[in-house]
Structures are given as C-alpha cells and as structure tokens.
Amino acid sequence: MSTSTPSHDEANPARDAGATPLSPAASTPSSPETPDFPQMAGADPIGPSAMLQAPWRLEYLQALSESEQRAEADKRPKPAAGSFLEAYWLSPASDPSNHVIVRTAHGMVLLNAYPYSNGHLLIALGEARPRLMDYSPEQRRQLWMLTDLATDLVERTLQCQGVNIGVNQGRAAGAGVPGHLHVHAVPRWGGDTNFMGVVARVRVIPSSLTSMHERFEATWTTVRSTWAPLIAE
C-alpha cells in the first residue's frame, strides 16, 4: 500500500471547513504604532512589527511580596571593586596605553577596547556607582558634560553621519560593568552593518585602537581651550 504526503490544500482544516485563513496582515491591523512591513518569501510571518500585549502581568509584578523585593534589592550591583574603569581611573600614568583621551577632576573619556564601531567611546566618572541616581546632581552634571564633549570629539574626529548615545544601567539592561555606570557614544554611518555580523557574528573594526587614539588626541588638542572652562580639568 502506498502513502502520499497531503498537499497544502488537504492539510488545511480551515479551508476544509470553509473558513478563510488569517494572513499576517489581517491579524495585525495597520496603525501608527504598528507600521506595515512588507513580507519577503521565507521571512518570519510575525515580522518586526509584532507586539504582544500582556497587561495582566503588571498586577503580578506589582504584587511581588516585600520579602521578594528585599531579595531583589540584595542582588543589585554594588559599587565596582576592581573593574577596569576603576583601575584606569586610579592609573593616570597609564592613560596612553589605556587609550584614555580626556581626564578631568571628575571623570574620563576613553576608547572602548571592544567597540561596536570605529571610535566607540566610553564616558565614566571616577567614583564607581551602579545607578545614575546614585550620583549627586553635580556629579551627573559633570557626567553629561563629559558626554557632550565625547560627542563633539566623535563628530569632529570621524565626520560620522550619526551617533548612538546611551547608558546600560544594570546587568539586565546589558551593562558589561554593572557596578560602574558609564555612557556609550558610538559613531554610526549609513550601511555600517553588513553580513559579517549576521552570518559569522563578527564585527569588522578596520582601525586599530592606537591609531584611533592618536586621531582623538589630535582633535582634543584642537578643542581643549574651548572645553576647559566647562569640564573642570
């Protein structure tokens, strides 16, 4: 006795019942919050516009017991002890080898040793704190002033088309050093991502850290007199 694989029509119970199967477009109505994305052959039918609304989870999250909240508080990262940022801050004589570009009385701007793109800068205060609001208003002012400076250096040095500026606070948010808050300034260009990141999970960084550090130092020498009154060197 021979067997055969059912055709698409034969295997579709909705069609046998006379119903019309829902398409991705029909199940996700167009709205300003969920823009339409064209579906490519073989693409994920959910697509990038999908969103799962689960408002009932809010009640669960708000109903965490007091003991659970205390347990979570105990897990919060404490000020860093021995992080590379703290080590760099305590070793000003090693600024060139650590690729520190700017050092002030409050913090520093340095090249990320594991950049997302060429010229990826880190901005950190010398005092290690895990949360932005753990710093005083004056410390936060100094941190954002250094972030302004870092953004200016990135734009002047690299003539990039855009800059990602952000903070990952806490390990759950992606912080690599959760005990020492820092800001990222990542230069971007149109088309600066390619198949290497998707196929090989490898980022291609064409410039060495030493060469990039020299370029940033040259820019800093040029603009230092403008920024000096603002950043309390």
Main traits of this protein?
single chain, 233 residues, alpha+beta, 5-stranded antiparallel β-sheet, globular, disordered N terminus
Topology of this structure?
Blueprint: H1 13-16, H2 24-27, H3 56-62, H4 66-75, H5 84-89, H6 95-98, E1 100-103, E2 107-111, E3 121-125, H7 137-158, E4 162-167, E5 183-188, H8 195-200, H9 209-231
Helix pairs in contact: 7-9
How much beta, percentage-wise?
A: 5-15%
Largest sheet: 5 strands, antiparallel
Structural class: alpha+beta
What series of H and E elements makes up the topology?
A: HHHHHHEEEHEEHH
Overall average residue pLDDT: 76
Given as residue ranges, the uncertain stretches (5+ residues, pLDDT < 50) are: 2-41
Shape: globular
Notes on the structure:
The structure is a single chain. The protein is an alpha+beta fold and 233 residues long. A 5-stranded antiparallel sheet has the order 1-2-3-5-4. The chain starts with 12 loop residues before the first helix and ends with a helix.
Q: What can be said about this structure in brief?
A:
This protein has helices spanning 13-16, 24-27, 56-62, 66-75, 84-89, 95-98, 137-158, 195-200, 209-231; strands at 100-103, 107-111, 121-125, 162-167, 183-188. The chain has 233 residues and is an alpha+beta fold. A five-stranded antiparallel sheet has the order 1-2-3-5-4.
